Amino acid sequence: MVRLMKRTSNLPRPARWLWAMPNLALICFLAVGVALLLFIRNNERQRQHDELVEAVLWQDRALRAELTARQKQLEGMAHDLVRGDISEGAFYGRAADIMTSSPEVLAIAYTNEFGDAVWSYPAQSMAPLQMVPAVIEPLQRSARIGIASSTPPFDFPGAGQAVALSFPAVQGNRTLGAFVAIVSLKGLLRNYVPWWIAKRFQLGIVNLDGDTLAARPEQPLPDAGPLSYDVALDPPGYGLRLRARIFLTGWPLWQHALYWVLAGLSALMLWSLWVLKRHMRERLTAERAMLREMNMRQALEDSLVSGVFATDREGRTLHVNPAFCRMVGFEAEELLGGTPPFPYWAPETTNQCAQIFAAILRGECPMNGFSLRYQRKSGERFDVRLYSSPLIDGEGRHTGWVASMTDVTELKREREALKASHERFVAVLNGLDAAVAVTDRRNGELLLSNRAFREAFRLTAPDGPLCALPLRHADPGGEWFDPVLGRWYQHHRRETLWVDQSRVWLDIATDVSERKQAADRERQQTEKLQQTARLIAMGEIASSLAHELNQPLAAISSYSTACRNLVASRQLRPEELDGALDKISEQARRAGAIIRGIREFVQKREPKRSVCRVGDLLDTVLSLLAAPLNRHFVRLVEIRVADDTELFADRVMLEQVLFNLCKNAIEAMVEGPQERCELTVETRTRGDWLDMIVADRGPGIASDDVEKLFRPFYTTKAEGMGMGLNICRTIVEHHQGRLAVEAREGGGSRFVVSLPLATQPIFKETEHHAV
């Protein structure tokens, strides 16, 4: 509408007023209609709100009266107890009468000053309350100080939310206890909210947080906004409120009809204005569109780099564009009206050009066009690619032919140069010892391979285009084993662009079988050294094994003796026996886990990766070090901030690394003063890395020895082998980690094991993979 008024701003002043008045009238009409409907709607909402307040106030008085009546019944029972007129049997009878006449009452009990039920109906009905401190505390207070009270809402099994009303029985200055009635909030609403209120409103009891504890009806309602009203519900108190919400109803039919009428009238007025304006603008729009179309077509034709010419059905030239004239070097006036042979046909190709032109006139237009050689006015030859199609006029009649041509002289020259370059490239590839191949990224088709590749994988020339690359499923950037040839290859792959700009894989495979065999021999020697180191460490952890096994065995003996005593006393309860047997089973499993950990630590085996927790790994190592720590009076300081962190690693190998580092730290402090014997084990995460730090307060490591520390057979111990730290670094580097040593502030050394955090393999391991 605003756009329509802007478009008419250039009209004379009377005409502008004629256009503006219908728009203003439409806006005023719509504003008055909307205001009227909103006024009617607000009056209806106010009337509903007043009825809601009146209903909730009436219902609040009714619920208060019922809760007060229940308290009066408890008060009567308390007075009868003081006078001695009520016994246990009489209590059960009166409790049954009250619960029969008041279905919302779930249970009635007589409790002592500690809140424990002396009499309860039904039996054991007070048991769930003993587990809720917030509920039992008001009952205990009521019984001790002799004041009637109630509890906050709680969940009663099988009945939902409920409250407990308590009235004490006081005799002189002594409180005999209290009578308690558990009242269901759902039952309270169900029994005392009349149908005529539940039909129009939803009544609910909510807590301080606004959570609905009970409601009638129980189905949830959308937020009613202002059509809700709360009043405090006291008793029982504790912030409970009675909330009423009205059922939202749709607008009356006549209001919807009025909206539709307003919308229809507005649409009609807008349509009439639009039709009138369209008739006024129709001629001007058509003229402007025709002019723009002609200018656009002329601009497109002048900006083309391909030559375009048109002929009639007899072959007479009707039109040429500027690009065609620039290609052939003739002016348009020299070419229009001409017939074959044309002046831009080269003498040596005149017959070929005449045959192709005749084929065009017959309607033979191949999709890939025609390849021709033309000459310019200066006599220079150039190659073109010619495409043709029928020329159809505005009435759908075939009046001639239109053809476009592109100068491909430079393209042909580039193709010839590319061919020569490709031949040189293939000669270089065939001279390489590594196998090189290029494959299609989508389907794995082999596009190019050198002689070394074909000889290595025994491919012949006819197999090339149909062969899927053998390295397609190999691990890029790693080593790959060919099970057919029995050879190992170092495989490198990267994505690149092919000559047709498609994405391809460039694979380079180098035969590393001899190097793998040497690595396997080195791995076997390393495994033997690791086994020897673990066997030497076995003697040191023998005392730790005895200490660890004594605890579960002593516990098993104690629990067995306890079971025997229970059986002999003839006071055996099944739950006590089950608990003792569970403890025996748990200690037996613990002893088995200790023996299994020692066996795995010593056992010679291949590397085996799995997901392991850092906390479990540290617990195993520190349990093995318990005896050396006690024997040398070394204090252990643990700083664990990454216990739940998980690694994908060989757990036994990492345990061996930590054990060796901790054992070296303990031995470094043996000769020092006892007050400085302190072993610190710290774990922390740093980005995508986990650091495990072992620090001691020993004499430290000389700067000259740091470089030699990890060399094989280098040791500073009188009886050392010199392989412990070398094996530790080998294991850590096998896990793509780093092992470093540094001086500790205040004296001593810090060994830092840094491992990458990963929950899946970083590379594929095979049975031939070397550590």
From TrEMBL:
Enzymatic reactions: ATP + protein L-histidine = ADP + protein N-phospho-L-histidine
MF GO annotations: ATP binding; phosphorelay sensor kinase activity
Membrane spanning stretches: 20-40, 257-276
Listed PROSITE patterns: HIS_KIN (PS50109), PAC (PS50113), PAS (PS50112)
Segments forming domain Histidine kinase: 544-759
Keywords annotated in UniProt: ATP-binding, Kinase, Membrane, Nucleotide-binding, Phosphoprotein, Transferase, Transmembrane, Transmembrane helix, Two-component regulatory system
EC number: 2.7.13.3
Domain PAS per the UniProt entry, residue ranges: 292-364
Annotated PAC domain residues: 368-420
Superkingdom of origin: Bacteria
Pfam families named among the record's database cross-references: HATPase_c, HisKA, PAS_9
Xref: PANTHER family: PEROXIDE STRESS-ACTIVATED HISTIDINE KINASE MAK3 (PTHR43065:SF10), SENSOR HISTIDINE KINASE (PTHR43065)
Name listed for the protein in its UniProt record: histidine kinase
Originating species: Chitinimonas arctica
